[in-house]
Write a structure and sequence with these properties.
This protein is an alpha+beta fold. It has one domain (13-86). The chain has 3 helices and 3 strands, in the order αβαβαβ. The chain has helices at residues 13-25, 36-48, 73-78; strands at residues 29-35, 51-56, 79-86.
């Protein structure tokens, strides 16, 4: 199971938006939210393209209209959000 970058355990709901903003400031790009069954495949794909990949708990971001799924614990357990960025020194 994927648990995010270098932080232990799941991120608390109230900190998720702040974590998203921190990642964006660090140069990460939010790609999409996907269920665990496809997560490994997509992670491998981005890595094969020479990108850094981290997996985070899903969160809403500015502009998203639907938020109700994220309030369900079962959704947060099954779905994760993929963030990518170019590896340093690689263009």
């Amino acid at each position: 199971m994927f648990g995010g970058s270098d932080r232990p355990g799941p991120i608390m709901k109230e900190n998720a938006v702040e974590r998203h903003r921190q990642l964006i400031e660090e140069g990460w790009e939010r790609r999409f939210t996907v269920e665990e069954s496809r997560l490994s495949e997509m992670k491998q794909l981005y890595e094969s393209l020479g990108m850094e990949v981290i997996i985070e708990d899903p969160t809403t971001v500015d502009g998203q209209e639907c938020r109700s799924c994220l309030d369900l614990e079962a959704f947060r357990e099954l779905y994760k959000t993929i963030y990518t960025r170019s590896k340093e020194g690689v263009e």
